[in-house]
Write a structure and sequence with these properties.
This protein has seven helices and eleven strands. It is α+β, with helices and mostly antiparallel strands and 222 residues long. The strands form three sheets. It has a five-stranded antiparallel β-sheet with strand order 1-3-4-5-11, covered by helices on one side. It is elongated and about 65 Å long. The protein starts with a helix and ends with a strand.
Amino acid sequence: MRRVLEKRISREKGECAMSGEFRFNSGGQIHELEIALAKSGDWDNRAITTIIQKPELLSDFLKVVRGQAQIVATKHVVTCTCGSFLSRLGSGWSEEEHRNSGTMELENKNGRLYINGVKVERYLSPNQRNGKVIGGHELRRELAGQPVLCACMLDYLLQHTELIPEEWKSGYTFFWGTIFRNQDGDLYVVVLRWDGVQWYWYHGWLKYDWGSRSPAACLASE
């Protein structure tokens, strides 16, 4: 009984219990932590889930709290060059068109994707809204004047999925900045998709019709 009481007292004081489990010393501390996370502005449910799944991150953060380590922000820099996505497509494919946008820095702020400080939005042509559909070749012509993202951005996002906005899990996000041609001469554009478990990519034939669930990844108008 005494051991049980000592164990309970230890937990009530917020110390590590004999089993190695931590307990807050009151519900008020939990509420204060929620307030602190909200004030930081950058926390969301996905970040909390990551912490739960990877508790070793908290061990690293504890070192920062105790002055034993420092946080250095990771910079996600991509240099968009021709041919970077072809290895995923395999033999027989070539680039019909590629918009070389140079070096770009990606960042996820408050759940939104930014490139060189400009927010990335999912753009819909007026001909894709209100139940309308548009052919892929016509849509390509419409997007010629839009700052759409190229396939190297998709390639990088697949390697760093923590940058992908949560809202992109609905629908399909196409990267019209690069147009590919297969061995049969057909044109395709690559797309990012969430299957309910993980992110993956595939390609959409330009002979298809494109509706409201097929926006283009595009830099927002400033």
